[in-house]
Write a structure and sequence with these properties.
about 180 residues; alpha/beta; about 45% helix; 8 helices
């Protein structure tokens, strides 16, 4: 579902400081990479802030992670993506656009499996799958309800993409608009 209509124009500066959030393997990284390329802006993956040196067994200190996220958000233009609502909330006042990749578990699970196979990962797939499937029931800031709250409370331009097809169409329509 696209709140203010994907076919409406994309005015200048709308995407200057875009945050993309959603469940694990919901297309956030795919979308942020393409949006970053399209707009020629820096893309920040919150996993790179949350986990020390990309080691998913070593969490960054919470206050340090928030400070790093705020530092990234001080820039004039960026796309920041991740599942961590607790890292999005402290920078929401800098955000010009919110995109929620709110896709069904069946699509997220398929994406997760493809991603982990492509990476050659096997060690933590079961644990990651279990954590991801709990998205709708968790009570943390990395849950469906936390993302729904961020989305509903944001007063600027926002998009809620409900399947991977909509995510692909979002970029295609944006590119078509830019060519006009």
């Amino acid at each position: 579902m696209l709140e203010d209509g994907i076919d409406q124009c994309f005015p200048p500066n709308r995407f200057d400081r875009t945050v993309i959030f959603g469940n694990t393997a919901s297309g956030k990284s795919w979308l942020s990479k393409r949006l970053g390329e399209e707009l020629s802006v820096r893309v920040v993956d919150l996993d790179q802030i949350r986990w020390v040196d990309g080691d998913y067994s070593r969490k960054e200190n919470t206050l340090v992670a928030i400070a790093k996220t705020r530092k990234e958000a001080e820039r004039d233009q960026w796309v920041i993506e991740g599942v961590y609502g607790w890292l999005v909330s402290p920078i929401i006042d800098r955000v010009t656009c919110v995109i929620w990749t709110d896709i069904p578990w069946s699509e997220s699970r398929e994406n997760l499996l493809e991603r982990e196979l492509a990476r050659g990962s096997s060690g933590n797939f079961v644990e990651l799958e279990e954590w991801s499937s709990g998205y709708w029931d968790r009570k943390s800031q990395s849950s469906y309800n936390a993302h729904l709250s961020i989305y509903n409370d944001f007063i600027g331009p926002k998009y809620r993409l409900s399947c991977m097809r909509e995510t692909s169409e979002f970029i295609a329509r944006m590119r078509a608009f830019e060519r006009r």
